[in-house]
Write a structure and sequence with these properties.
transmembrane helix, 42 residues, transmembrane, membrane, mainly alpha, MmpB-like
């Protein structure tokens, strides 16, 4: 790898999609926890 090589950064679209997937994963995890708590209480 040479110093003149461009940095290996993903394109803008890919970074946006990864951020969106990350947020969606967090939301799904929180929703799953809430559902489990409701099931345990019921």
């Amino acid at each position: 790898m040479l110093w003149s090589d461009p940095p290996d950064e993903p394109p803008e679209e890919l970074r946006d999609m990864q951020a969106r997937l990350h947020r969606m994963g967090i939301v799904l995890a929180v929703a799953a926890i809430v559902v489990m708590v409701l099931i345990m209480r019921g």
